[in-house]
């Protein structure tokens, strides 16, 4: 109904007064003008930005009166950035972006050429540093929500590595009832990607809630999950980082150092400190991206230790030539007889020993990962190797892909 | 020995060649020119800045070619900042500051008026957001180092609060041997300060290592330590923050909400989930700054629940008038008969019930905290109340004060 012209009536005057009071209150709290948006669940308590709109769009805001240029940039799934922000008269910059893929995304501000965190968000270890992250609600995301079911615990486990001579910290999920059941449990070792660390799977991945919910529903066996830092660099060396032109020799050397930590330090530590079932039938190895490459490298060499192997969004190396560079080793035909030093050469034997061999990938992942996985899957299946090839619909090289992998992998373990 | 003038000899030429090669190697790794400095232990792996010199000075560096002004600023103990940085020709800004107080310090960059984190450092929850931190080595800091002794675990404990209706996360330290001893343990509840959260005592405070080391030396009883988020704000409200002109009524209201969470949700959760000794003689309450105020407010009202009370660097409120403002309530005479609703009125009874009453403070803390504590200590002692007054030499309102408090408090608990 149109408002009649002329002086507003009494009800309108009261409404204006209340609105003005509310506006003052909001200004005092740093609240945005009322719309249908809400602070992201990943915001620090009380932070009003970033905000997620009902239609999934996201508004980012930063007060930077002196800035000359300010963008939002971020990881796969946030959208095709960077997103230039616009300056308001008060020096507050903002931008509203199209709905990102649901799930977790790293992001940062580019403030006059310097990548800086958003003071409104939690940080997560990614890109080899503390990086802002945002959680975009997923209507199908109940599987990683904290819910009113029996909950496990996430523990820190420090240990002195005989391999590196340094103190290391693993993160360990113990299932609901662990403290009182007196039972022994199988173990899933679950590794992060490049630039991340042992906190990735519980903070970005919400692995503990995925397990809690699966176990509560009777869909996964209660298990211990161990997450370690996938680096074992010599003391004082720069952290290992994969590059496209790196020869396989260097990759193997770095993975071998982590393999030594895993086999000689981590697994014995866990088997001592927790009530594990310390045999191959009750031990799984999984990892994402670089952690998936480590899973294939280490797992396929130690089938006496692991009966379950899951590589998530992992580039799959074809050859064994130490001089070959990573980029070229991911292309070309995958030869199931020779790949991974012949681990798949005898398909019948492989199928008998390996209870799960999982290659997951997001349908929106870029190359070479998508083709690399697809080529390996086709060749392995043609050679008679039993495997599960999982495709996460519409997700890229991002945590929502890996949450979905875990949702599907965990029920297939130890059953 | 002076080098003879003229052409350098063969040995010098070789030395120059090696130095040049090393310089190239360092440049490739992003390493600073050789001096006596080392990356701080709080740096993210591989980060070359900030660096700590052998004499304790600290050099901070940030590449920001477009910046017009760049400072380092930080919390108590870092030094009298902000510290203006100087721009080099390549757009890298740096400053070397005088040796800070040993221990942990929050800090940040002021980049053209925006407070941003240092990509080289870990972040810690402080100032109500993720904030960079630096660990300055302390020659007497062995007590909080991870050492080759039996280590406890740090666990996350989620619980659904009946008080707030929300899921909350506590952090729980279990002592070495907890999983296998079958024993029951006393409980210390240990709270953070304003703008911090449940992660403060283990990340900034290193409480787990302080306990591990004390327990290994037989100097503290094995105990469970519970660290919760000291807020219980109504859903959607801005987080509680103390201000000087806040009336005591508002402070009591906020603390009462946390009191309800602590008494009705947290303690029952812990007593169900862990092998505790669930009585007052085996329960302690301690906290720093705002957490110390909460400790006094809650602890003194619940002497049937807590036999040990420790307030660290806590402003001590004198009066009971709900209209009085915080700033004025911290000044003036402390009346032991009336303060805290008469909790100290009967000194003999208080001394009989309370096994430890601890008021700690750093000698370098500012006002009103220092005078507020001192006045309360003098008045309480004069009235016959038994207490321990600890002064941390040369430290301010900072974590090194509170690490030292814990080092002294823990041995006095449960013995």
Describe this structure in words.
With 415 residues, the first copy, chain A, is of the alpha+beta class. Chain A has helices spanning 10-29, 178-181, 200-203, 207-216, 248-273, 290-301, 326-329, 339-342, 347-353, 369-382, 399-409, and strands spanning 38-39, 51-52, 58-63, 70-74, 83-84, 86-87, 92-97, 103-111, 114-116, 123-126, 129-136, 153-160, 167-174, 187-191, 224-227, 283-288, 308-312, 356-362, 388-392. The first copy, chain A, folds into two domains: 35-137, Immunoglobulins (Immunoglobulin-like); 142-412, Alpha/Beta hydrolase fold, catalytic domain (Rossmann fold). Chain A is built from eleven helices and 19 strands. Chain A has an eight-stranded mixed beta sheet. The relative contact order of chain A is 0.10. At the A-B interface, strand 9 and strand 12 of A face strand 9 and strand 12 of B.
Features:
28% helix; homodimer; globular; disordered N terminus; 2 domains; 11 helices; 19 strands; 415 residues; six-stranded antiparallel β-sheet; Immunoglobulin-like; alpha+beta; Rossmann fold; eight-stranded mixed β-sheet
């Amino acid at each position: 109904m149109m408002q009649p012209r002329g002086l507003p009536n009494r009800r309108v005057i009261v409404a204006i007064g209340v609105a003005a009071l509310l506006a003052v209150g909001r200004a005092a709290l740093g609240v945005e003008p009322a719309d249908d948006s809400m602070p992201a669940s990943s915001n620090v308590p009380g932070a009003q930005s970033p905000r997620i709109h009902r239609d999934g769009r996201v508004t980012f805001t930063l007060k930077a009166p002196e800035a000359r240029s300010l963008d939002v940039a971020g990881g796969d799934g946030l959208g095709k950035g960077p997103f230039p922000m616009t300056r308001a008269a008060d020096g507050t910059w903002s931008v509203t972006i199209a709905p990102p893929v649901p799930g977790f995304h790293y992001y940062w501000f580019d403030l006059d050429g310097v990548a800086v965190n958003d003071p409104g968000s939690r940080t997560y270890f990614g890109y080899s540093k503390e990086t802002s992250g945002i959680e975009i609600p997923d209507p199908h995301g109940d599987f990683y929500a904290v819910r009113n079911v029996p909950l496990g615990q996430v523990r820190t486990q420090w240990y002195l590595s005989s391999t590196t001579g340094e103190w290391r910290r693993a993160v360990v999920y113990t299932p609901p009832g662990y403290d009182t059941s007196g039972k022994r449990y199988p173990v899933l070792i679950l590794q992060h990607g490049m630039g991340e660390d042992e906190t990735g799977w519980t903070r970005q991945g919400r692995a503990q809630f995925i397990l809690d919910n699966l176990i509560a529903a009777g869909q996964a066996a209660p298990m211990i999950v161990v997450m370690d830092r996938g680096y074992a660099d010599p003391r004082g060396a720069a952290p290992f980082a994969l590059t496209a032109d790196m020869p396989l020799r260097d990759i193997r050397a770095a993975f071998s150092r982590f393999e030594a930590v895993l086999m000689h330090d981590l697994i014995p530590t866990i088997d001592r400190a927790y009530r594990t079932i310390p045999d191959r039938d009750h031990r799984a190895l999984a990892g994402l991206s670089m952690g998936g490459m480590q899973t294939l490298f280490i797992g396929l060499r130690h089938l006496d230790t692991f009966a379950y192997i899951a590589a998530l969004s992992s580039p799959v190396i074809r050859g064994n030539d130490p001089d070959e560079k990573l980029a070229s080793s991911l292309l070309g035909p995958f030869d199931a007889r020779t790949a991974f030093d012949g681990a798949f050469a005898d398909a019948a034997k492989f199928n008998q020993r390996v209870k799960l061999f999982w290659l997951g990938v997001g349908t929106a992942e870029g190359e070479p990962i998508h083709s690399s996985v697809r080529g390996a899957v086709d060749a392995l299946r043609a050679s008679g190797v039993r495997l599960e090839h999982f495709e996460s619909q519409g997700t890229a090289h991002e945590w929502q892909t890996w949450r979905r992998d875990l949702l599907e992998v965990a029920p297939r373990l130890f059953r």
